[in-house]
Write a structure and sequence with these properties.
Largest sheet of chain A: 5 strands, mixed
Largest sheet of chain B: none
Number of domains of chain B: 1
Number of strands of chain A: 10
Strand order of the largest sheet of chain A: 2-1-3-10-4
Strand content of chain A: 15-25%
Distance between the termini of chain B: 23 Å
Number of domains of chain A: 2
Largest interface: A-B, 31 and 33 residues
CATH class of the largest domain in chain A: Alpha Beta
CATH topology of chain B: MetI-like fold
Structural class of chain A: alpha/beta
Helix content of chain A: 40-55%
Number of strands of chain B: 0
Shape of chain A: elongated
Oligomer: heterodimer
Order of helices and strands of chain A: HEHEHEHEEEHEHEHEEHH
Radius of gyration of chain B: 23 Å
Number of helices of chain B: 16
Order of helices and strands of chain B: HHHHHHHHHHHHHHHH
CATH superfamily of the largest domain in chain A: Periplasmic binding protein-like II
Structural class of chain B: mainly alpha
Number of helices of chain A: 9
CATH architecture of chain B: Orthogonal Bundle
Strand content of chain B: under 5%
């Protein structure tokens, strides 16, 4: 009897610890949401626009779109922009399988085509920026990487994006164009995880976008390479057919294409369309 | 309760324990508030698997499955899950023994910490592993500079990531069996002159073998399906660190049919292993 009672108590202890850990985790994740939500008590300027706009955007758009989202919420009180940043292919796959989203911004026409071919987009996608590849190396560039060819040195640990992801496809295109054969240590699932391998100093270099090098600040050092001109990615944006909030979604796309939006995107390192 | 059906119970026990009360249950009928959610629960668990079978690209399946990438991924998955289970056994069984058979300050805390990887999102586990065992990690930097060992982006890294998430399953399972096992057998062995280690080896281990088997299956299955910690810690390279779940995830992006085919393989392997180990699985000590 005492044995089983003791065991029950012990189980409760463990369960308690587990629950506490879960609470701590959920507390972490929910704090992100609450910090970005604005007060929606103030009277809305345009009565039509309210509610949440859900934007599925390529991982490389994270910094600039987050800034634009905040601007949008300030300009249109009562609205809230929520983002899902991931590899464009992942996003395209979830949109075609019915994920509720208003806007899709992809990092390549190819991944955009997955969505538009299924008839999930409204109208023709518009190219709003372009992005060029750059090599991200460790701070100070200790391995003296100066060209794409340097990455083929066997002593270097290089990560690329997976070929299914736009940044991986672009990198492959640049490598093929310059007849280089590069064996990376890993094909990462999106551009941010490729970059993070260098930020964490696990890899010596990664082929990512200019904008990612820009966003990482002093944690990595960027090395431009001429072959990247052969593989510049167009970023298309489209309103989705089953958009739950089409009015606000259109306004968000307009903001992205406006002079103000382009200013934010250029500041992040994107090229004009 | 036991008085009513002692003879039946005795007969049933010979066959295999837990079924003994079945007759009584059906006699009273299964209460609806239990039956309905139970059936819904069963359907909920089985429906996605059925959908996988219904939507499977049966025609293109043979060509999908004969590609070298699939076999590479499958081989790597089986190898790394088995090695990870071996690591779990070597380290986990002694850990379970320590938690179940000894008293030391903070033991309950240690026990709670051991189960932490169970509730931790695997990607978080992967990041934590990078920070600990990565080339620049707390311990990893010494591994690198002293022995020239780096774990990320290697098959060993896959095994480490899988062992990290799978070990709690084994420890919990073995510890539970140890607590249920009568410690007097070990004490008897010791009074007869066996050392504590000999008692563990000759008496305890055979006694808790079913629990270890069950724990190993759980750990192996968890390791086989591991995704988050693996892709974060070991990366993704075909033939070296791309296990089946990673291949499924990446295939899903541009070739959903291939992803379904890969999922079927993984499902078949899991079912085969569970079926093969069913007997041990069903009758823990």
């Amino acid at each position: 009897m005492t044995r089983s009672a003791r065991r029950t108590r012990r189980t409760l202890h463990v369960a308690g610890a587990g629950a506490a850990a879960l609470l701590a985790l959920s507390a972490c994740s929910s704090s992100d949401d609450s910090s970005s939500s604005k007060s929606d008590t103030s009277a809305s300027a345009s009565p039509k626009m309210s509610g949440t706009v859900t934007v599925f955007a390529a991982a490389s758009l994270k910094e600039s779109f987050t800034t634009l989202g905040k601007e949008f919420e300030t300009a249109h009180p009562g609205t809230k922009v929520t983002f899902n940043f991931a590899g464009s292919d992942t996003l395209a796959a979830s949109i075609t399988s019915g994920a509720p989203a208003d806007v899709f911004a992809a990092a390549s026409p190819k991944t955009m085509a997955i969505v538009t071919d299924k008839g999930d987009g409204v109208g023709t996608p518009a190219t709003f920026v372009r992005n060029q590849l750059e090599i991200a190396t460790l701070p100070g560039n200790p391995d003296k990487v100066t060209s794409l060819k340097d990455l083929t040195r066997s002593s270097l640990k290089v990560v690329l994006c997976d070929k299914t992801v736009p940044c991986g496809a672009a990198a492959q295109k640049a490598l093929t164009a310059s007849k280089l054969k590069l064996t990376p240590v890993s094909y990462e699932e999106d551009v941010k995880s490729a970059l993070n391998k260098v930020v964490l100093k696990e890899a010596d270099a990664a082929v990512v976008y200019k904008t990612d090098v820009h966003a990482a600040g002093s944690k990595v050092e960027g090395v431009e390479f001429p072959e990247s001109a052969d593989a510049i990615n167009d970023y298309p944006i489209v309103l989705l057919k089953n958009a739950p909030n089409a009015v606000a979604a259109k306004a968000f796309i307009a903001l992205v294409q406006s002079a103000e939006g382009q200013k934010v995107l250029s500041a992040a390192g994107f090229l004009k369309p | 309760m036991t008085k009513l059906d002692t003879s039946d119970a005795a007969a049933e026990t010979l066959k295999g324990g837990p079924r003994r009360r079945r007759v009584r249950m059906t006699g009273h009928g299964v209460p609806l508030p239990l039956l309905v959610p139970a059936l819904v629960g069963l359907a909920f668990l089985l429906l996605p698997l059925l959908a996988l079978l219904v939507r499977a690209p049966w025609r293109s399946l043979p060509s999908q499955l004969t590609s070298t990438e699939v076999w590479q991924a499958l081989q790597l998955s089986l190898l790394s899950a088995t090695l990870a289970t071996a690591v779990c056994l070597v380290l986990g069984v002694p850990l379970a023994w320590l938690l179940a058979r000894t008293e030391f300050p903070g033991r309950r805390l240690v026990r709670a910490l051991v189960t932490l990887p169970l509730v931790l999102p695997p990607v978080v586990g992967g990041v934590a592993l990078l920070l600990a065992l990565g080339r620049n990690g707390v311990v990893g930097q010494w591994l690198d500079s002293w022995f020239g060992i780096t774990l990320p982006f290697t098959t060993t890294g896959v095994v480490v990531a899988e062992a990290f998430v799978a070990m709690p399953f084994l420890v919990i399972s073995v510890e539970g069996t140890l607590r249920a096992a009568d410690p007097r057998y070990e004490e008897a062995a010791q009074t007869l002159g066996a050392s504590r280690f000999t008692a563990f080896r000759r008496v305890t281990l055979p006694l808790i073998a079913p629990g270890i088997a069950a724990g190993s299956v759980l750990a192996w299955a968890r390791a086989l399906g591991e995704f988050g910690a693996t892709i974060t810690f070991a990366g993704n390279f075909p033939g070296r660190t791309q296990t089946m779940p990673l291949a499924v995830y990446l295939a899903l992006q541009n070739d959903p049919e291939a992803a379904i085919a890969l999922s079927l393989v993984l499902l078949a392997v899991s079912i085969a292993v569970l079926a093969g180990l069913r007997d041990r699985w069903m009758t823990p000590s």
